[in-house]
Design goal:
single chain; 636 residues; alpha/beta; Alpha-Beta Plaits; 3 domains; five-stranded mixed beta sheet; 15% strand; disordered N terminus; binds ligand C2E; binds magnesium ion
Length: 636
């Protein structure tokens, strides 16, 4: 199923193919036999059915022609054509000899014979026949002049040799005319057929392109759909299980960023080859999208599928050697089984995706089979999304503020705005649950607008209460940059709150900076030109690409809490944190440590040179009024 079909152009069956030649020869033989049979009948009829020499010659010729008819094939075609033409030539001249020589009606068959020679054979036979027929005419004329042939009707006006000459001239011009007309037709036909063949080749290539992925040469979703339909049809009688296995390479983006697009493509090609090694009569591999591979596996039982996917997963996890690099791919695998989980490609694909994403959401399994609970979860997600769309209008969103503390003085220097959603229908929903949903559905841009508006208002209120140096940090999503109007909206909101731009910090994560780098960089530069500063959030969890810090002109780096939490216990993490702090200092970037929960960690971080801390040690995120109370307490 994996091999690319090399489709043969239909034009190979042409006018000049062996088949066509045999067909033409057989047709000629049929016509000649019929003519001879009719002539034989008339010869016998006019001679009272007494066999004459001519009748005998006709009968023998019919036998020979029938034999040729039966013998004709692609291999014997040219030999038989020659033999037929020569037999007919000999027969006609013999008929003339027996009859009236050049005055015999058989002479009329000469041009026809030459025409047949052009159609059925090559130049050699044609020329030799032409010479033979002209010689025969001369010979008959000679025979007439010598009285060897009788029954000739000689006209005074046209002497014998004059008649021969006019026959020869007629024959010559007739032959030349037919020859050129036929070779012209032949040439034009050949050209048309050549064009047709190249057109068909192009169509086949296009058809192939539309059905096969260019990078890996694997068949695409169109082919998969056709195969799936036929397998599902067969399944009705076989009772086998069909697994629709979706395999996504989840770290494709990071490979592109950390290595290059070429290395990413090369590793996907190698992955395709590894997957192809699993293909057989029961297993087919396809590539749907950039990082989405699909395997159709036909099996008699569930266990067979499970052990198969295990092997596929192992094969994908082995290092890929691309030029001088060792690339590791992260495969996410989801499986839907037909007929239980669906009987159309759309259903099976959807359910295998649900299974795959359940894994990405945190389970440790290498692959997941779809089950109905996932569909229920998906349904709940849809309902949650619906509720989220109305959350802003229904005043269900609240902002909490978590203080950021100067590690040297323990004074609050600012706060991070963290959103909370209390839904009357679903209760408290953490941002880690609804923010990704909002990102997927596009609601995030409205949420971000709301958060910035409330954050700058809150900051303005702190200033009015005398906390004039506090900055407010707001988290952004990649989606916020997509519409291109972030800068305009943010500036309008700052203007509305009458808050100078340098009091606002915007937090980005590294993964956000992957898509459409140029557009994001442009918007960041615009916002920076107004005085807004940028922070890289959760540093250390993503690609930890130092290039971003300088490329995007980031002024704050927030160390992820997963490192910070363990620095007192793990020397590895201590070393990483130490290196990040030193690096950020050398780049003149302010560093903030997130998730500080105890004094010991805070002291160690201060000793390492970390400037700002954030964490439960000082406070959990608080509503505005409680945060203001904390500020007063901290300032007292
Ligand atoms: P983040 O921006 O890294 O925020 C820090 C998260 O760590 C917050 O979780 C905070 O409550 C928690 N945290 C702070 N200190 C400690 C600590 O000492 N111990 C522990 N265990 N946790 C601590 P939260 O509020 O649940 O927010 C989670 C994530 O949701 C945020 O991570 C951010 O990525 C996202 N998020 C929150 N609000 C917004 C928002 O308004 N817009 C966007 N786009 N994302 C938001
Ligand atoms: Mg943050
Ligand atoms: Mg963070």
């Amino acid at each position: 199923m994996m091999a690319l079909p090399d489709e043969v152009p239909r034009s190979s069956i042409t006018l000049f193919s062996d088949q066509a030649k045999v067909h033409r020869l057989r047709l000629t033989l049929k016509i000649l036999t019929t003519i001879l049979a009719l002539l034989l009948f008339s010869e016998l009829f006019f001679n009272d059915f007494l066999p004459t020499t001519l009748a005998f010659a006709m009968f023998s010729s019919i036998i020979i022609l029938v034999f040729f008819f039966l013998w004709a094939s692609a291999d014997t075609c040219s030999v038989i054509s020659g033999m037929v033409l020569w037999s007919v030539a000999v027969f006609i001249t013999y008929a003339c000899w027996l009859g009236n020589g050049i005055f015999d009606t058989s002479v009329l068959a000469f041009p026809c014979l030459l025409m047949l020679a052009i159609v059925l054979s090559g130049k050699l036979i044609f020329i030799s026949l032409f010479v033979y027929l002209v010689s025969a005419l001369c010979f008959f004329a000679f025979a007439h002049s010598q009285g060897l042939l009788s029954g000739a009707l000689l006209f005074e006006s046209l002497p014998l040799w004059g008649r021969v000459f006019s026959y020869i001239i007629t024959l010559t011009f007739f032959s030349i005319g037919v020859f050129y007309i036929f070779s012209d037709i032949r040439k034009r036909f050949k050209k048309i057929l050549e064009k047709n063949a190249s057109l068909e080749l192009a169509i086949n290539q296009l058809r192939k392109r539309s059905r096969y992925d260019q990078l890996t040469q694997l068949p695409n979703d169109q082919v998969c759909k056709t195969d799936l339909d036929s397998i599902l049809q067969q399944q009705k009688t076989s009772g086998n299980i069909l697994a629709f296995i979706t395999l996504n390479v989840s770290n494709q983006h990071s490979i592109k960023m950390n290595y290059s697009h070429r290395i990413c493509d090369e590793s996907l090609k190698q992955l395709a080859n590894r997957l192809i090694s699993f293909s057989n009569d029961n297993t087919s591999i396809y590539r749907f999208q950039e990082n989405e591979f699909v395997i159709l596996k036909n099996s008699i039982d569930y266990r067979g599928i499970s052990s198969f996917v295990e092997k596929v997963h192992q094969a994908c996890c082995h290092t890929f050697h691309v030029t001088d690099f060792d690339v590791v791919l992260q495969p996410d695998i989801g499986i839907a089984l037909a007929p239980f989980d669906g009987s159309t490609m759309a259903d099976l694909r959807h359910n295998s995706h649900l299974a795959m994403h359940t894994k990405s959401a945190g389970e440790k399994a290498d692959f997941n089979f779809f089950d109905q609970a996932m569909a229920i979860q998906e349904q709940e997600k849809l309902q949650l999304t619906k509720a989220l769309r109305n959350a802003i209008q229904n005043n269900e969103l609240v902002l909490h503020f978590q203080p950021k503390v100067d590690l040297a003085t323990e004074k609050i220097i600012g706060a991070e705005a963290l959103i909370r959603w209390i839904s009357p229908e679903f209760g408290f929903i953490p941002p880690t649950v609804f923010i990704p949903l909002a990102e997927q559905t596009g609601v995030i841009t409205d949420i971000t607008h709301w958060v910035i508006e409330h954050s700058v208002n809150a900051c303005k209120q702190w200033q009015e209460l005398g906390f004039t140096k506090l900055c407010i940090a707001v988290n952004l999503s990649a989606e916020d940059f997509k519409r291109g109007n972030l800068a305009m909206h943010t500036m309008a909101l700052l203007h509305q709150a009458n808050l100078p731009a340098h009091f606002l910090e915007l937090e980005l994560t590294e993964s956000m900076l992957m898509d459409d780098i140029n557009s994001i960089q442009k918007q960041i530069n615009e916002l920076r030109s107004f005085g807004i500063s940028f922070a890289i959030d959760d540093f250390g969890t993503g690609y930890s690409n130092l290039g971003y810090l300088t490329k995007f002109n980031v002024s704050i780096l927030k160390l992820d809490r997963s490192f910070v939490m363990n620095i007192c216990q793990s020397s590895n993490e201590l070393q990483i944190v130490k290196a990040i702090i030193e690096m950020s200092k050398s780049l003149n970037i302010t560093n903030v440590a997130e998730g500080i929960e105890d004094k010991e960690t805070a002291n160690l971080l201060a000793k390492l040179g970390c400037e700002i801390g954030q964490g439960y040690l000082w406070s959990k995120p608080l509503p505005q009024q409680e945060f203001i109370a904390l500020l007063s307490e901290n300032n007292a």
